[in-house]
Records
---
Amino acid sequence: MTSPAEDVDVVAARPRPRRGVSLRDAGPPIALVVVFLVFSVLSPEFRTLGNVQNIMDTASVLAVVTCGITFVLLMGSIDLSAPGIMGAAAIAVALLVANNRNDHDLGLAGVLVAVLLAAALGCLSGLALVLLKVPSFMTTLGVSAVGLGVATLMFNGVQPNISDDLLASLAVDRLLGFSYLTWLAAACVLVGYLIQRYSRLGRYAYAIGGAEEVLSLSGVKVAPYKVAIFTLAGAFYGLAGVMVTSQLSAGLVQAGKGYDFAAITAAVVGGTLLTGGRGGVLHSAVGVLLVTVLTNGLVQIGVSPYWQGGVQGLIVVVAVAAAVLPQRRRNQVVK
Amino acid sequence: MIVKSRSAVALLSLSLAAFAFTGCSEESNAEGGDDSTAAAGACAPDDVKLVGQVRNESNPYEAAWLEGGDAFAKSVGLSQERLTYDGDSTKQQEQISQLLAGDTDCLVMNILPNGDSDTPPIVEQAQEAGAFLVTQWNKPADLNVTDYSQWLSHITYDGVTSGQQIGDALADAIGGSGGIIALQGILDTGAAKDRYAGLEASLAEHPDVKLLDQQTANFSRAEALEVTKTLLTKHGDDIKGIWAANDDMALGALEALKAAGKEGKVAVVGIDAVPDALTAIQDGAMTATVSSDGPWQGGIGLAIGYCVATGELSVDDITDRAWFAEQFLIQQDNVADFVSPTVDESEYACDNVFSRSQGPIS
Amino acid sequence: MSVNVESAPTPSPSAAAPALEVRGLVKHYPGVKALDGVDLVVRPHEVLGLAGENGAGKSTLLKALVGLVRPDAGEIWVRGEKVRLKSVVDAADHGIGMVFQEQSLVPNLTAAENIVLGAEGAGVRRGVYRWDTMRRLAQEQLDKIGSHIDPLARTDTLSFADRQMVEIAKVLRIEERTSHPPVIILDEPTSVLESKEIETLFTQVRRLREFASVIFVSHRLDEVLDVCDRVSVLRGGQSVGEVATAGALPAELHRMMIGSTGADDHYHDTAIRRPEQEPEPLLSVRGLAGKTFRDVSFDVRPGEILGIVGVHGSGREDVCRALFGAEPTSAGEALLDGRKLNLSDTRSACAAGIGYVPAERKIEGMVGPMSVADNMTLAKQKARCVGPLVSPRKQASLVDRWIDRLSIRTPQRSTAIQRLSGGNQQKVVLARWLVADDVRLLLLDHPTRGLDIGARSEVYRLMRELANNGVATVLLADSLEEAIGMSDRIVVMSDGRMTAEVGCPSGNKPTPLDLVKEMV
Amino acid sequence: MSTPVITKPGTDAAVKGGPTLSQRLTLFMPLIALVALLAALTIAEPDFLTQRSLTAVVRTSAPLVVLAAGATLVVLCGGIDLSIAALASLSSVLFALWLPDLGGLTTPVVIAVAGLIGALQGIGHVLLRIPSFIMTLGGMSIFSAVALVISDAGPVRVTDRDATKWLTLYVAGYVPMAFAVAVLVITLIWLALRLTPLQSYLTSTGYSEASARLAGAPVDLVKVLAFTVSGACAGLASIMLVSRNFSGSPTMADNLLLPAVAAIVVGGTAITGGHGSLWRSLVGALVITLLRVGLPIVGVPSAYEQILYGAIIVVAVALTLDRSKVLIIK
């Protein structure tokens, strides 16, 4: 970030100390390492390779969902539509690839269609946001319900089980010790990062979170990009839904249950701000690992499952407090 | 911009209104729209209003249940109103009280309470409103059906027996000795408690079978997958068998085994005999399950209510109002007989509605 | 429009025609006639100064020139062709660009992105960023103005001066939209720069003249005369004349701006003779220190107006906020009537009878959607309460009394304050501290910023009245002239320290230059 | 001291005041939406418009109304409270557990404890400068965890029903006590705001926290107070739920969170703070209740029910949101 060209007096005249920022960026990875080491010491089962694989497998779906939600958060919006969209995509893909309900066998094409359906649903919340001027909190809430409805319609009382080899193998077959789903998730994170770093869409998502008015002042029409971001997020949720289906080799309406707040938690823990403009896909990915390692570690050292949610809640608060305290100002507005 | 959005709103709401109508008109014929205040037990067959309520239609067993309800309603020339509450106790109560605020004189309800603790308020409201109520699966042990005139019957399967049966089947499958793990259901449900009690009983008889670990997966396939994965890494090859309190969780466990490459090496048992489980048993992926007949449950509850409402059956004549329904242990040898559960119309005949009773709930 | 990056800008064939001409521009705002028939001519390759008091209509004129404001009447001609400017982009297409006073950069993007924002051109292919191209494009712009900042540095890590360079570079991009030399508007570019930075800026401006026309707006008349070829003066929304800068004096410009001689009478110095023996100080600040200032000590006496002057970064604003408990202090103390003030929060400051009027009226001063009445009684709730309860009748009469006394123009007391004109909004914010008749010390941070002349003279008069009634005032003035005109005494701050304390009695006022010496 | 008088008039002239027609319309939009929805349901099922079923609707809505009303205060000062539902569940468990020992005192104690927990969140929010969204998101999971642990993940039966009997009675034969209590609570809070400077403090904090602070408004206190009331309301709501289910359960109210937030926004309260009122949330809660129980009862199939629910809340917000009061829509 610091540039050789900057002359000294400029550095002296910096408006804001960098400490808070760098701490926000470095904190989560450090925390991740620490937590991992602590659990490794506490529990022999935890440090086994098998468990590391297990952690990565468990993290994969959440990672993909968080990828999507991160872009929305970057804009300073919020997205609660993951459960509905994932449910719809999960059922859709189950019905489109080889399954026990109908004799479709679209294979990859089926996956594509499911993801497109999800993207369309995401697009819906984006449109409602920019056309009806309804806060994203509500539009995504509504779209989530719509998605669940669509899923229930398609479910139609009979569990669709997939017999598609490709999809089934994703969760089972392993490459270098990790299941294909894990690699898929890794790929998503990479793609997400590339979009965020190298695409106009991604950069504008940052800009919208940073100073929306400046964009329009520079003659950029913001609305289309907002819609595009929600569509992109929807696509990610859709893929996540497909992944759940391949894990269970069956389409569930509840495929996305609880992933909305889980993803927000992960993103925030990773250092992506709800106010937008800060953080990113990589931050969120770290957050996902942090949360997953915690949950898994707690089980391994035998903490009652009931406590696990609570511990996570605590972690979020602590993580954010740690990030904001170094740079708190008098008369600062915190919503 | 505002103008545009306003008009957009108008448009959307219009299309919604249309939507609402199509959505509702399907059902509006279900309502017997007259307020004839018929005394209990003397309803004209046409006045009877049949309601079946389950958690959600997005679960095969409960969807089949509602189908069964429709089948019975059709057989008596009526139609069933379907209610679902997404496994949300609050919403269930809200629906019931709203339902009972309507015309209740000839209302017959076949209800699946979300949990034991949800049964008392349902029963009391039905009693107050004078609707005919049949509940299934969940009720607090100390709540007696006979204390209420409108609560015609409570039907359930003997969870202890089924839990024990599959426990024994599992023990045999792993050769009478070895470690197993148990996946519990929603802890608040009688079903979950009884079935686990059954497992304990079975364990008592097989001292060499060791219960390594037990966690709840809330009857959910997805949760079972995660829990099993973790337990597999925790206990590794010590796990010889997996006992699941229902088939959905058993199937989730199967996926976990598949992912761990242990498919077929670990025996899995469940309860409910959902179609997927039966196929799994046919392929030998699963060891055993216990039949519970969704379609029949959906129909029989309405049938009992219908018979009492129309006066063909008197509450006082019912010997056991809280009773166990008949169930079978299903394994590879006999699975073929259960692949397509059929309900015989005659079982809904008013003199025959208790044909599957295995006696009172002890 | 050519997106040809490499080609050096060529002087346009129509160099003879004015690069930009404004004829009889008129713009009304609710309650104010911001522009009242303004004429302006900008020749190619010249730097035109635009001078005028606050509220003279400068900012409105500039906004009209970049399409942010639609004039009610009048014409804008670009290189001999009449144009209607509907948006910033539209203006840019005609080769007019502006460096905004409040900076218009996206803080969390790189300098390069900000420079090309909205017109990435070759920097983005099919929605995919090409950082190297991006960097090159930006570098080209930065080179034009000879800035050395790293195009890929995130903007909010740059110093203010560098951010301004980025803005200028961004504006220069409009060259690629038109084949003609562009018109660059610099709105108060120096107001927040330190002298060293100002020098670099001026070299930039002179450099710009090579391939563009520049409209340069500044309070500091000496600067205007220094850097511009001609100066056009606005007053009360009208052009009152032009001055060729060669050999012109700040004084005559100033005379044109305020339409009379000398600074004093303009500020209504009622020339009240204060008693010979000075009263005890009401406020004594002793060695106060904070993030941006240290070792600040001064006294303010009842009925005295103390001006604090200094360039941006002198820390005077923070001293003011610190006294009100809105900015943390690390050392020192402040005594009110010899009693130590609790500087930890704004509550106790209010309780002690201190009032604060922030510079950012719209963000920090008023609660836009709330009614005039509620805004006015926000700070002094007791004034509208009977016991613990609010008495609407009491509030109504109180508010009406003050609306009348300060002649605040508002339809009803229940009107949302954001619907009033700036001057009336400011009066409400001021009244907030007066309603309880218990204010003893007023901290005024640029109280006349963005007000038109009429509103400002009313604010001045009000300040005088309060002073005569024994209220002590600390004033951070909008301009040196204002500070000198209003203050009885002036404290000069530079780089967080007090550098001088100058007596400023009516009749014997120091000149701006005396103060500037101390400021830098 | 005497106050200065300005005699000379300023150059500013007055601006025309008064709300526009569309503003007046948006003011009543929530009510209009409610009536429209009721009409639609009645058309679909004539029996729906009977005194008994309407009574049932308001009885059902009571807990949601209380939850939404409390959270509205937090929203009004610019924050959001995601912990209300989890806190209500926890309170229901506490109530069931403490009833045997505390008897009649249980109700006030539980409400007080809930309020205290809310206050703690508020303090954490203002002292640690943690965004309310995060603070209460954390609170949500922590409260559920505690509830699960102390109740051992199962419901706790309430044997002594007299303690909550009063909530199941009827006022004047028709108005359910629970709803009457809900309305009473709203009225009290509303009066407390209207009659004291609190309203000003709350509104200014919500619209422009910076201005409020620099005008010496007790911003932090107001926020903590809002969270306290929000918590206490969650406590009261939980007791209403217990009175309905004769038991407390660690997940009892969890599914009421999003409906409660929806109720607030559908009522027309700006989620960005400042603009809105508790009465709006009351109407909003009734709308949401109609959607939750009305749609299935008139026989909308569950799949369509969800789709309608989603679409309708979005449209409702689009209609009720007064955009002149909300600057940026994120």
---
Amino acid sequence: MPGIAQLAMATGFLLILIGFYGALTRRNLLRMIVAFTVAGTGVNVVIVSIGYMHGRTAPILDATLAASDAAARIIDPLPQALVLTAIVIGVGITALMLAYALRLYSQKRTLDIGRFTELKG
Amino acid sequence: MAFEWIKIPYALLTLFIVVNYGMLLGALMQKIAARVGRRHGVPIWQNYADLIKNYGLRTSITHGVMFYLGPVFRLSGGVGLLLFVPTIYGSEMFSNLSFAGDLILALYFVFFGTLGMALGAGESGHPHAAIGVSRGLAQVTAAELPFALAVFAVALQYQTLSITDIVAAQQGGVENWTLFTNPLAVAAAMLAFLGSMMRPPFDVVLAPQEIPIGPPTEYHSSYLALMQTNRAIFPIAKIVVYMNLFFGGAATWPVFFLKVFCIYLVSVFVGVVFPRFRVEQSIRWFLVWAVPLGVLAILLV
Amino acid sequence: MSGVDGLLLSPLLILATGLGAAFLLGLLHPRQSGVAYGLTLVALAWMAWIPARWLWAFVLQGAAPVEILTAGTPPPFAINLRFGLPEAALTLLVNLTGLLSAIHLKDVLLNQGRRAMAVLLVAVMALGGIILTRDMFNLFVFLELAVISTAGLVLLSDTHRPGLALGAGFKYLVVSQFISVFLLVGIIFAYHATGTLNIDGMAEAGLANVAALAFFLMFIAVVSELKPFPANGWALDIYESAPPAFSALFSAATGAAVLYAADKLLLIGGDAWLPMATAIGIVTFIAANLLALPQTHDRRLLGYSSVAQTGLVLMVLGQRDILGEATPFIAFGLLVSHAVAKAGLYWLSGLVQERRLTDWAALGRRPLLVFAFATFMAMLTGLPPFPGFYAKWELVHHLAGADRLVLLALVLLGALIEAGYLFRWFGYLLKREAPGGETAPCTPHKLVPVLAALAAGWALAWLWGDLFGRVNLLLALPLLFALAFLLLDWLPAWIKNTLAIAGLVAYFIMTWGEYDPMRLIFAIIFLIGGALTLLASYHAHGRRIGFYPAAMLMYAGMVMLIQATSAFEFFAAWELLTVGSYFLILRGKASEPHALSYILFSLGGAFLILAGFAIAAAAVPRLDLAATGALQLDLASLAQVAAPAAPWVFLLLAIGFMTKTAAIGVHIWLPGAHAEAETDVSPMVSGILLKAGLYGLMVLLLAMGKQQLHGVELTHALLWVAALTALLGNLMAVFQEDAKRLLAYSSIGQMGYAMFGLALMNHLGWLMALVFVINHYIYKSMLFLAVGGVAKRTGTREMYRMGGLIRLMPLSFIAVLIGIIALSGVPPLSGFGGRWIFYNAIMDSETRLPIVVLFLAGPVAFLYLFRLIYTIFLGQLKDELRRVKEAPFWIVLPQMIYVALLLVFALVPGLALRQVDAYLDRFFPDGGLRWEGGQITSQYGYWDPIAIMIVVGVIFTTLFLWLLFVNRRAQMVKQFNIVFSAERPYRPETTHFAWNFFAPYRKALGFLTQPLATNFWGAVTDLLHTAGDLGRRLYDGNGQTYAFHLLAFVIIAFFIGMGA
Amino acid sequence: MKRDPMHFIKPELMPRKVKGPDGVEFEVEPLRDYFCDAPPTVQHGAYLKIVEDFFNWARAQSLWILGFGTGCGAIEMRPLMTPRFDAYRYGIQWRPTARQANLLVISGYLSTKTLKRAIRAYEQMQNPKYVVGLGSCTINGGMYWDSYNTIKCLDQYLPVDLYITGCMPRPEALLQGFEDLKKLIRAGQAEGANRYAENFTWYKANQKQVIHDWDMPDYNW
Amino acid sequence: MVKRFIALVLVLAVGGLFAVLLATYAPDAELNQTARYYAQRTAQDLGAANIVTAIIVTYRGLDTLGEVTVLFLAATIVGLVLSQGGQSGTPARGRVPVGELLTTGSRYLAPLILLLGVYVFVNGHLTPGGGFQGGAIIASGTLLLLLADPLRRFGHRLIAAVESVAGVVYVLIGLLGLILAGGFLDNRILPTGALGALFSAGAIPLIYVLIGLKVGAEVSSMLVSLAETDAETREEA
């Protein structure tokens, strides 16, 4: 029976596929960037779903969770650390692409990617 | 086979005999050709008269050094070819200067005269001379091939390149001649012989009217005299090579005169009958008829 | 220990200084960009100094690789960085390129402000991170850092249309988004499977079936960063639009870093994934080179070339299983050559205004930059003495050893295509006339990186020579002598000429003792003959920049060729003389296309020889592996090549050597190359260089003797090829209008004769070949010099425009007269000797038919020889040539020496041939000649050269005296005093019969001279170009299409990879 | 040189400036550069009379006629080559080039234009050379006695050794004429070439008086 | 039309790839060795309550350094890209007047948002969240201010200074870790203190504060740059 992890991962993969399809078919730059963000979120969901273990709690040591029995009760903290970095990098690239899109628009008054094909061959 | 001083007078003797025989034979052949045309033909001593007249001419012009040396090259080619080949088999007297080189020397020395003459004619500045030379050289490439093949076949057959050995192998009766032991080679050689004798089927080089006698058009008086002496010696010298290679050589002078006459007659015999070939026709003729014979000769030896 | 363990030298500092400096720049006031620039340079310099110091420690002081732990906890739980020899070398390469690029970008950085400097610092730091990190996710972070900084740096574009760079940057980001998705998914699933993010941890855990898919995603993502063939449109747009300094950084540094990352990944994947890496690598190498052919934009071409080289290195990494411990030597050799050369070329492109390849002619006037360009080009095509050459040698040998011949063929094919477009470009640079625009002002900051790359190139050449172990090419005396002329190039020409001649003669005196008689002949021709030909070079005034290094390189190559004992020395010498002669031929005014076809055929031949040696080395039974080393194939040991490979080795080597002697089919380069070369270069190239090919054939035939391939006797085939070459070479010469082309075709014919002699494989056949070698050198050099002198005086090479020069240029006439008498084989002179030995040789040869072809070729020589001398010297003198002076003294002098040499060789052939005749007995016992006094007797006939000369001389002089006596008062007349049927010739031009001299002959035998070979090779090149054009249509400039390509590439790789 | 109709010189013979391959300009004077303008000299026979007689015998025996037919007489010369008359028997032969010929037969009327060619052909022959005139036209103009462009008396222009009369002499007459010529030669009286050399200026004056477009050197070697 | 079809095929193929991954995925019953190490050793070694923060700041400190550089880089390049654009910015087509509700609300909310952001990244090592989340909150505060008053000018000099100082100090702490403690970015250069206390877990809180400030400064500088593109006047960055 697909557990929560598989369900989350499936949605993550689905998001990635939607993101890819959007990026490949939409000609507008901004829509492409949005599609990439969707794909990025999908990846993040997948990463987080990897670390999930049934019936365990978040890796924060506090009153309810003593340091000693942490190993038995917490889920895998590493993916969460990785996802944080992945998100930040996603933000960085998206910001860059938006800036590019802005300048490309200001240059040719269009956002259609098909119009920026001076470099070819 | 070393050099002795006595060989020089002997060689000069051979030269004297051959020059005179050449003059007379040339006139005789002209007379035969005339008689074919039911003309009486020139007197037998006509060549002498022409020679002396040309030597006797008082003035001459020169176009330059190479023009001046042309006839000298030509005649020394003829004389050299004659002397490098032993004329009479077996006699030390008449083996001339053949100690210097063998069959290959004779084969290549033929070109010495041609080259010199071509350069002389070139210097004359006359376009007809150049056209004549270009035709002559073009024709000689095709004409020489069957002869070279025949010579190679004979050399392979007798496993030697020295002419005296080849003649020695053909002694003892007519059936030992190369004519009968290697007929293909002789056939190819004789076809090539026609090409090299400047007789009508292949005399587009000296075509009298079209390009006034081709290369020698600017030559006269003593130059022409030298060329006439060569025209007497050179055919005989070439025929001597043919005779030694294919027709058993000559042990004595009468046999020599007879065989030379017969071989010379072959070219005259063909010459009086056929009209003149253009250069590409003659090249094609040689490559179609003479060369296959030569190739067969090599393969079947 | 070795003084490298201080904090300031800790490898981590590479990253820390980069970051620290980037952040520090933020503090500076915008107007202090000068200070910021200084800080950036200091930071980059320090980042470069650390690995340099470590490299010194590793190499010389034997320091051990060091593990750097972060966060004080052991690796699997924290990120660790390793710093061994490879990392040190790579970081040094990256940081140095970064520093030099920063210097190159001085003015761009200054006006862009401190932000651009920060981006540059971070970019260099990121690449350092990729190399050092041993953690997968950390690798992902640094990769993304590199991507972003690349996108940022592309914007500092100096092209006048900034919009281009924007488009390229955006496409790059689009593609990198896809790549990062795959990489992240791959990493997380690999983590799930192995429980660790550390690369070494993953390697031990090993990736079972499911994890294999995860590894595939990671691997395909990193490989996509390496710009594999279908999915590299974005990379080329970046190369085209980015500023050159950045492209240098992008191609050299990023390429190297990501390649090392791919290597680390392959560590994880293990041997199962090597075939995929190889496949992607080789496909990229071939396809990128093919697409580079039709390029006209210089930076895009460099882009394709760098993509190709990266593919090649990836392929080498993929062959790690068979290369074993040689992998670093080869991979680094190729990578370093590519990096230094590509960076250098990009920095050079900064100095050129226009972007078309032909506009690089503007550099043509600067010798130093031309030398730099030549060095970079030589490094890229792997010519000696550069690292690429050693690397290619090892690579080919290992591939042949592991019997991967298809791969070997593809590598060589790709290298040949690359050589094609690079040498074509070098031709444009030197020969096309510079467009109006001067090169960009050579400000020092743009020049320093180029010179640094140049110095690095030559230093690496010396280093790789040492690393190679056996022979370091740069220590070979002849090569050093040639390179010394590079430094002396500022001297006037005559001093250099004297030096060159002295050098050649001295070297001959030093080494003539060690040659056996056969090689002694070649040594005499190469050295003494070379010195003689160089006499003609005194006629040139001024400095003749570039002539002497090229000439000395050729002579060095040739001398090393005959001194070579091992296959490696032989091949190195072969390529040296090819390169030297290429530069020599390229000096001719209109010689560019011909020099290109020359170098392509020669390199093609050289690659065949390389393949031949490699297969031979593989097939030689490994008795003494340890002693001589696997790859130390001696020329002599060619004989023990095992049966199945022997005929193929023979075939490859024979074809390779025959491209140099211009056998029919591969001869089309010769006429153009020899005709268009300069007056004193033609004799060198034609008289001396062709003998190198013959020497190669001799070595081959001596070593391997007769070979059978599918029942066909290879020497028999060689016989036919030689005969056809002789006939067709002579026939084509007959119909030439250009004098030098006529002589060039005649060389083809003569080489046909010489090869025929060799192919006869009997004593006299070889003797004939040697006679031809000597004869051909003497009369061909003489004829080329004579015709060159005439062409210099009359200003034209077309024979029908000359005529009647015998009175004005008598000495040239004598030289040509003696030359043609000798060449045609007419008795008194030495040509006849060759013919006489030929006849004796064919007496006992078993095959007869080729001899028929050769007999026809003989008299044909008369035709073009007479045409040469008649149309130039005899016939009618043209008006404009009436005041022509005799050829310059220094061109006539060698000719007269050659005339004397010919006469001496004609009179006393024994002087040269006696020892070699005895020497040949060792290989061909029967059929030798007996030399008694003047007479030479063979088994069949006899020949007495002195007697012939005397007899002919006596007859000639007596007849001449007789004519002089009889014809004393001949009246000297002028050119129009001819019997023109009682008329007067119109003009000299119409009376000189020279144009289409053998028209009837062309009607008869013209069909034999159809340009079949030219059409064939033309078709091959057209095919390659159309393939290139078709390929180029793949990149239509649309970012989305590039995304499609990437996904398609991933899917295809997946199906093929996982399927296999 | 204004175009004087009487002294018209063809353009290719006009002096012209020419630029050599090395860029040096120089003057080319065709008439002086292309043609040798040395005058003919009197050539004496061999010192000994016996040798000269012997040579004269040879000269008589091998008469090489230049194939140069001008007037209607040329048609009479053709039969001599045919079997019926066969001049070869007497050592007579036709040579296509003037160099090798020693007998010039002017066979009939001679227009001034042809005279120019005849002179050139005659001057290109070698000493000793003989001229034979056929028919009355060469003697006194014949039926063209009052024509404006024919040569009335050949002797003023070329040194004629023998005339064969008849308005056109038949081949037999020609043969007989040649026999007479042989006697002259054998007697040593056929020194036309020397006569031409001795009063060369006189001949040249007569010729120039008739030939107006004289655009060639005085003596055409 | 063909393009869509090919896109669909490709995406489905990639989907197939992911499907294989999904099908063969089996969640671990037990923590793998790396996670178990973190679970057991974080408390006693680093003294940080929030294990994820411990991993982010110390164990995988280099990643975080890399991340911060990514953001710094993105901000710099965005600034570069937009400053290069020159005056080609779109003319402000009649700015829609900002609603009264937004202006007053932002004036009230902005300080609160700022406070929340500071709280989040100060308690990064104790409670969920940390430098990045806090930085993002501060940036959202700046965004709110920008929305309220688009012509508002922020002192670029200030933002750049904060950014640089934070970056440099962060690197210095890293180097200090190398000198004093076990390795680069080791947090034990300061006493780890009691678990759960504000001043515990060595240098982690200090690093997180710096990261928070830096991220806040960078993201807001990006937003400001984007905002300025359509503003008429532009003073040199």
